[in-house]
Write a structure and sequence with these properties.
Bound molecules: xanthosine-5'-monophosphate
CATH architecture of the largest domain: 3-Layer(aba) Sandwich
Order of helices and strands: HEHEHEHHEHHEHHHEEEHE
Number of domains: 2
Pathway: Purine metabolism; GMP biosynthesis; GMP from XMP (L-Gln route): step 1/1
Strand content: 15-25%
CATH topology of the largest domain: Rossmann fold
Function: Catalyzes the synthesis of GMP from XMP.
Low-confidence stretches: 141-145
Number of strands: 9
Mean pLDDT: 93
Distance between the termini: 39 Å
Structural class: alpha/beta
EC number: 6.3.5.2
Organism: Rhabdonatronobacter sediminivivens
Helix content: 40-55%
Largest sheet: 5 strands, parallel
CATH superfamily of the largest domain: HUPs
Catalytic activity: XMP + L-glutamine + ATP + H2O = GMP + L-glutamate + AMP + diphosphate + 2 H(+)
């Protein structure tokens, strides 16, 4: 792509000019935006960049390993893998209120990130994968009345607190342009086309109290559901798909025995921007096959339901 090739060269030059020989910290989430920003900045300033990946223990199956393999081994970008899952899960023990969960994760995330960033000597800049729509949204909402439905998980306010200047090389781009830039930079197509994943991770797909057992079930169930969607060639038609584990056990039969395991809900939606959404009209065959696989392959699940709520009035995530 000629346009993105030119943009890439221009962006690299601008980053070099802004940063000089200072050090830059970039928080990696595993999402497309922060990943594209990191690879672009690394191209511009090489090992003056250090990435910090906070692993809160609420990621999907194999996700942390994928991030580490891609950035550290494939791109050779200096990466700190902050495995703080124990700390996050302990802090979340006994909490079932959705907003308290989000706030607990958000606060701890900032503490942990700051702790690791403080260890990077001489850092003067913080890189963020802010996009153009984020820039406009924060302007048009300021001053107006606002209703917070869910508090979002990000590192807002952190740069000032840490005395860091911002590097935001994606500020002029829309999502599809970021994807094009990512392809231009050689990120794998499967990575660029990934469904969005929320900052608080699996915590908001686990209504009620979060336990290690529920998270483990959720990881396995989610992997089966996504595998089904890929096998049927539906992944790219769907905006986002995942499994939520319900805080309820139900009775079932398996062989000669009775089971008393968790019920889960499948969620899959189409959307343009995540603001509104419709549930995906899977065929009955697809749903039956998926339910059979989930109950057969995931220990701890014995009942499967499909969430057919649109947004509004529902939200995409369960919390
Ligand atoms: P809802 O559930 O509000 O989600 O309909 C809309 C989109 O936003 C994602 N989401 C988040 N993303 N931090 C994020 O980075 C968050 O705290 C967060 N909460 C929801 C959600 O996955 C969906 O794509």
């Amino acid at each position: 792509d000629w346009t993105m090739g030119a943009y890439r060269a221009e962006a690299v030059a601008r980053i070099r000019e802004q940063v000089g020989d200072a050090k830059v910290i970039c928080g990696l989430s595993g999402g497309v935006d922060s990943s594209v920003a990191a690879v672009l900045i690394h191209e511009a300033i090489g090992d003056q960049l250090t990435c910090v990946f906070v692993d809160h223990g609420l990621l999907r199956l194999g996700e942390a390993e994928e991030v580490v393999t891609m950035f550290r081994d494939h791109y050779n970008i200096p990466l700190i893998h902050a495995d703080e899952s124990e700390r996050f899960l302990s802090a979340l023990e006994g909490i079932s209120d959705p907003e308290t969960k989000r706030k607990t994760i958000g606060r701890l995330f900032i503490d942990v990130f700051q702790h690791y960033a403080d260890g990077i000597e001489g850092a003067a800049f913080l890189a963020q994968g802010t996009l153009y729509p984020d820039v406009i949204e924060s302007v048009s909402f300021s001053g107006g009345p606002s209703v917070t439905i869910k508090s979002h998980h990000n590192v807002g306010g952190l740069p000032e607190k840490m005395g860091l200047k911002l590097v935001e090389p994606l500020r002029e781009l829309f999502k599809d342009e970021v994807r094009a830039l990512g392809r231009e930079l050689g990120l794998p197509p499967s990575f660029i086309g990934r469904h969005p994943f929320p900052g608080p991770g699996l915590a908001i797909r686990c209504p009620g109290e979060i336990t290690r057992e529920k998270l483990e079930i959720l990881r396995r169930a989610d992997a089966v559901f996504i595998d089904q969607i890929r096998k049927h060639g539906l992944y790219d038609e769907i905006w986002q798909a995942f499994v939520a584990i319900l805080p309820v056990r139900t009775v079932g039969v398996m062989g000669d025995g009775r089971t008393y395991d968790f019920a889960c809900a499948l969620r899959a939606v189409t959307s343009v921007d995540g603001m509104t959404a419709d549930y995906y009209p899977f065929s009955h065959e697809f749903l039956s096959e998926t339910a059979t696989r989930l109950v057969g392959e995931v220990r701890g699940i014995n009942r499967v339901t499909y969430d057919i709520t649109s947004k509004p009035p529902g939200t995409i995530e369960w919390e």
